[in-house]
Amino acid sequence: MTTKYKPEKPAKPGEEKMADKENKKKPNPTDTHVGSRIRLRRNMLGMSQEKLGENLGITFQQIQKYEKGTNRVGASRLQAIATILSVPVAFFFEDLPGEEGTANRGFAEDPSTTFAIDFCTSAEGLQLNRAFVRIQDQKVRRRIIELVKSLASDDGD
Asked: What are the b/e assignments for 112-145, b being 16+ CB within 10 Å?
């Protein structure tokens, strides 16, 4: 006996299921996380979206969509991105929200205190880190840290 697939009809003509609408508007959290990790690694290497796109044979707009999680990255494309960015594929899934392994983190910081990671992965944080590590003199590094601390305490306290 052959049964034909019959899609559910909306209650009224022209109506869509609410769940379908919501899913189309908001990217999947895993796709968003993978995209943010692509952006993080690309920025760590100082690579532009255009350059990554060239290496993959796609446009920088497609890279933007991957990084925002708007478009899902296929397995073979993710493998190619990992090769170009010199990381294992697993890198893109590290620290995935809701991951089961987060319960056994021991003395690790609470995930809500990841402000330092958020800053370091921002454009300003990456620029600051790149410039700072090029300073060879330890005394100069310490003085910069003291300067930044004093500027921060003047503004906040």
From this structure: eeeeeeeeebeeeebeeeeeeeeeeeeeeeeeee
Q: What's the topology of domain 25-95?
A: 434 Repressor (Amino-terminal Domain) (1.10.260)
Residue ranges, comma separated, of all CATH 1.10.260.40 domains in the chain are: 25-95
Report the alpha-carbon distance of residue 72 to residue 157 in Å, rounded.
44
Segment 81-131, tens digit of pLDDT: 999 999 999 999 988 877 655 455 555 555 544 666 677 777 788 888 888
CA–CA separation, 89 and 119 (whole Å) = 24
Cα separation, 51 vs 155, in Å, equals 39
pTM (two decimals): 0.60
Query: Taking the CA atoms of the chain, what radius of gyration do you get in angstroms?
Result: 22
pLDDT tens track for 29-87 = 999 999 999 998 898 888 999 999 999 999 999 999 999 999 999 999 999 999 999 99
